[in-house]
């Protein structure tokens, strides 16, 4: 069995989820987020692209409804014993099959929470779910329930986060080794991803972000690779991943020599990063982290060149992205708590001049403040 946590730890997580269900007056939870399924049971799959539901009752009982290809997947990777299969066909209605299973547990007229905010529950399937259960039970959004439990990492989880951070550092070392005038972006990516996989890591929940030239000002993946010019710039945002736990880094690397203004932008980025880490304190609203980023950038004349958010929580996330809840933006009242893991990214993009500068680290909230998990310096590296 490919379990990466003890059965006792998984049982403790489910017990805490059950306690939250009871506190909210819910009789059960319909779980559609793959992250929640992995967290509570160890179940590891990408089968959530189809209708798939893990039910957890306020009495602690749980079952999985999925398709045939995921039967053995659940048996091999999770502690789920009760696995039901819905059969593909033109008249297939897994939502109605789920209703029948809930009826077996005498949940008629009961209150059930639903993870509506889930990539594993499309809008169409949510409509079918609501229609199937409309006259059967009362549904309410409980998308945040397991996510709140996942936010604070256990000691065992932090071990995996630290391993992910080490893999991210190795990937950055490979980027520094392979980048330079004439280097092909595909070779840089291959070196970075290869060292992570050779280190026992996983594919990330979204693609590594790479861009050079004017595309160094992009912070989303796009298709198409190029060779670096003698004088160029390369922006990288990527994650080391271990047991699905992500630790991200972000850097802009001048090629040949820094572009005009890039040295000043780097100083601002480092100052902003340090200000953000200082602002991330237990008990304080995490919106203050964004405020620190904005304050530094604005003071140096980069109001138009900064973003409206400056990072987010990290953990076990599945495709299509590694961004977890919550996010650093102005006014976010969510308090920082020891054991949380965040990615702080400093982005300064001057579109008028076509110049990019970024810097980013993954940090662990501690009792006193936060700890950067990367051993790599934030100095400007020119290749």
Automatic annotation (TrEMBL):
Domain Peptidase M24: 161-367
InterPro entries from the UniProt entry: Creatin/AminoP/Spt16_N (IPR029149), Creatinase/aminopeptidase-like (IPR036005), Creatinase_N (IPR000587), Pept_M24 (IPR000994), Peptidase_M24B (IPR050659)
Protein's name in the database: Xaa-Pro dipeptidase
Location of the Creatinase N-terminal domain: 13-152
SUPFAM superfamilies noted in UniProt: Creatinase/aminopeptidase, Creatinase/prolidase N-terminal domain
Biological source species: Hypericibacter terrae
């Amino acid at each position: 069995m490919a379990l990466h946590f003890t059965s006792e730890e998984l049982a403790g997580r489910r017990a805490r989820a059950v306690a939250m269900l009871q506190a909210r007056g819910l009789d059960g939870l319909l779980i559609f987020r793959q992250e929640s399924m992995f967290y509570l049971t160890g179940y590891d799959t990408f089968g959530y692209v189809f209708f798939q539901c893990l039910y957890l009752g306020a009495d602690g009982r749980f079952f999985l409804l999925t398709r045939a290809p995921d039967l053995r997947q659940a048996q091999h990777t999770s502690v789920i014993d009760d696995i039901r299969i819905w059969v593909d066909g033109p008249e297939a209605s897994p939502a109605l099959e789920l209703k029948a299973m809930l009826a077996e547990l005498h949940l008629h007229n009961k209150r059930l929470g639903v993870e509506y905010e889930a990539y594993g529950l499309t809008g169409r399937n949510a409509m079918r779910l609501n229609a199937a259960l409309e006259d059967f039970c009362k549904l309410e959004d409980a998308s945040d329930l397991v996510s709140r439990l996942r936010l604070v990492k256990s000691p065992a989880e932090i071990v995996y986060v630290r391993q992910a951070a080490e893999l991210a550092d190795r990937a950055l070392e490979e980027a520094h080794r392979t980048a330079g005038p004439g280097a092909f972006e595909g070779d840089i990516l291959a070196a970075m991803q290869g060292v992570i996989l050779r280190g026992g890591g996983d594919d990330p929940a979204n693609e590594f972000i790479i861009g050079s030239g004017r595309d160094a000002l992009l912070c989303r993946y796009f298709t198409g690779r190029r060779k670096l010019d003698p004088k160029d710039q390369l922006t990288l945002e990527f994650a080391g991943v271990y047991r699905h736990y992500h630790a991200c880094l972000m850097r802009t690397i001048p090629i040949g020599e820094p572009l005009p203004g890039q040295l000043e932008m780097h100083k601002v980025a480092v100052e902003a990063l340090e200000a953000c880490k200082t602002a991330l304190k237990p008990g304080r609203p995490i919106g203050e982290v964004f405020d620190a980023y904005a304050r530094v950038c604005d003071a140096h004349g980069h109001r138009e060149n900064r973003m409206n958010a400056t990072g987010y929580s990290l953990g076990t996330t599945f495709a299509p992205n590694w961004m977890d809840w919550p996010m650093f933006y102005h006014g976010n009242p969510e308090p920082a708590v020891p054991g949380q893991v965040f990615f702080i990214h400093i982005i300064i993009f001057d579109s008028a001049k076509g110049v990019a500068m970024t810097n980013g680290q993954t940090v662990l909230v501690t009792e006193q403040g936060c700890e950067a998990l990367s051993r790599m310096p934030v100095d400007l590296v020119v290749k």
